[in-house]
Amino acid sequence: MLDDLVARELGRTPVIAARLGATVTDAALPDMSDAGITASAAADREWIERLRGFEPATVDERFDRDLAISGLGQRLVLD
Fold this sequence. Notes:
about 0% strand, single chain, globular, mainly alpha
């Protein structure tokens, strides 16, 4: 599940993806229109709910899940 989230985040933030070594084209730049921002926020909310439904088997998984939820929630507040 977290691999899917990381892939989404790298697609959403191509500048960070490029810094991390991923190949990025200009076509990958995010849609910063009002509609694009609204769609991105909706996807963040969906991910938060999906992650909240995940029951971690280990302390490490719980930490990773909670960190992802926190990061997505912070972005919702800042966007």
